[in-house]
C-alpha cells in the first residue's frame, strides 16, 4: 500500500503591509541666520535648487515654519542633522 504524503507547508512570516507614512523635516523661523545661510544649508541638506531653498526659507520666515524635506525616517534624520550643523531649529514629524 502506497502512503501518500502531503508536502508540509513552511511557516512564512505574515505579509502584513508595512505602514509607511512620510516623515517631515520642519524648519522653524529664527532671527539669527541670514536667508543666504539658510538657503545654502537647505541646498547642502536636501540637494534642492536655490529657488526651492528660497521658497522654503521665505515660508519659514513668514509663516513661522515650513516643510523642508519629506521622506523616510533615516533620510529625514540625516537632513535634520545637516540643518542643525549651523544651529537651525528643526523638528521631525511622522
Write the layout of secondary structure elements.
Layout (H helix, E strand, L loop, with lengths): L22 E6 L6 H12 L3 H14 L1 E7 L1 H12 L5 E4 L1
Antiparallel strand pairs: 1-2, 1-3
Helix pairs in contact: 1-2, 1-3
Q: Given the helix and strand composition, which structural class is it?
A: alpha+beta
Question: What is the residue-mean pLDDT, rounded to a whole number?
Answer: 88
CATH evolutionary superfamily: Ribosomal protein L7/L12, C-terminal domain/Adaptor protein ClpS
Proportion of helical residues:
40-55%
Q: Which CATH architecture would you pick? A: 2-Layer Sandwich
Report how far apart the termini are: 63 Å
- Series of H and E elements: EHHEHE
Radius of gyration: 23 Å
CATH topology: Ribosomal Protein L30, Chain: A
Amino acid at each position: 500500500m502506497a502512503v501518500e504524503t502531503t508536502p508540509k507547508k513552511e511557516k512564512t512570516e505574515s505579509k502584513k503591509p508595512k505602514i509607511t507614512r512620510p516623515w517631515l523635516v520642519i524648519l522653524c523661523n529664527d532671527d539669527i541666520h541670514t536667508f543666504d545661510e539658510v538657503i545654502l544649508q537647505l541646498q547642502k541638506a536636501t540637494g534642492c535648487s536655490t529657488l526651492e531653498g528660497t521658497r522654503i526659507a521665505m515660508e519659514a520666515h513668514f509663516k513661522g515654519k515650513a516643510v523642508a524635506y519629506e521622506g523616510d525616517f533615516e533620510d529625514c534624520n540625516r537632513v535634520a542633522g545637516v540643518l542643525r550643523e549651523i544651529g537651525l531649529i528643526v523638528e521631525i514629524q511622522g
